[in-house]
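Hi R.,

Here's the chain you asked about this morning:
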Amino acid sequence: MADLKMLAIDLGASSGRGIVGSFDGEKITLRENHRFSNDPVFVNGRFTWDILRIFFEIKNSITKTVIDGDDVSSMGIDTWGVDYGLLDRNGRLMANPTHYRDTRTVGISDYVSRFVSAEEIYKVTGIQAIDFNTLNQLAAEGRDDPDMLARAEQMLFIPDLLNYFLTGKRATEYTIASTGMLLDAAKRDFAFELTDKLGIRRSLFAPIVQPGTDLGELLPQISGEVGKNRIHVRTVASHDTASAVIAVPAQGEDFIYISSGTWSLMGTERMTADCSSAARAHNMTNEGGYDCRFRYLKNIMGLWMIQSVKKEFTEDLSFAEICERASKETITSLVDCNDDCFLAPKNMIEAVKKFCRDSKQQVPETVGEIAAVIYNSLAKCYGDTIEEIEALTGKKYTTIYVVGGGANAGYLNELTAKYTGKKVSAGPSEATAIGNIVVQMLHDGVFKDLPEARTCVGKSFDVKIYENA
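And the predicted structure, written out as tokens:
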């Protein structure tokens, strides 16, 4: 059969890429056709996303498919979660979307609790309590700029906003909406009983659609800009972790995954949400997945810490060089990766040192020692988290599937096997783009279901096994 080709737009917190996925009847292959930085901007006291530049780069990627001669039939966009843009009554973007690391939501949970309790929110949504969740962002918007929220006709999550720019269609994709503490987990629809209490209008929200929904062709003007391309735009599992989990090459239903990147999302799949007080006590979250599954997981700070210290080291070192130095150290100090002090510190190295100093541990000084503390702390956190998941689910898991960029961090994978006592299967590293492509292929009937697609992923991409010594 001739190669079937789709375009995945994969947007991360620091960069974005266009990736053409092909299927020859047996294997999926990927080819990057465009890469660009995603640089947030601080303007007028607000930390924001440069959404119009992102849109410009997406159009460049679509144009490249024409230049390269790729007969691409469809495209899908995945991004990080929780953030959104507001449209006015004319359908125009009112302001650059605010970045989830902006300080407007610091301590917002106390404000929200005046209207609805944290216990009620979790019982309905099953979402981990984090200040920057969308419900809290909207509450901050209403508190700090009620006129803006009053004038807004609709809010769209980042991938939905970009799809709207391309097609003119407004819809809220299920998996991205589920990240924001806005959905009733049982109904898989907006939790209006919560938003009503915060004075957030129901009309602000666009209808929810599932991954694989066809939004139609590009708007005529957009098509003209990108080489008269008539590509169809489809909703994928547009939260990047939801796409990454689709690409976990696991056999069977019971498995543990770590979607390892800027954040580490560690969890398992379930067919029902667990909104119990026990799950809340462990700060577990129930995010939407493909085929109405739930990603029962915990958010862990992830490689953000290593990415930050890499920029701060005086030497220009690769991640491989940093791992090599860390592997030679014997320092035993550990930090709590989920502590808020590591969310957005002015200096990550100093934050790590201060945590060790305050907790009466050896303070790391060298590149190797600082990296060793972070890598060991991440692996220790993984070990603690899998114990929590096993206790909550009543199941034992033998293998941890690491997908995403962290699959290439061999030293961290070795430590993960050590601290968890489990076998670690690392790869594919391009899981998010693969999951994006797979949903488009499922829409076209390439695979009969998700298990068949996962089997194909396992045959198409290399994985590396790490055993606990």
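The CA atoms of residues 379 and 455 lie 28 Å apart.

Let me know if you need anything else.
M.
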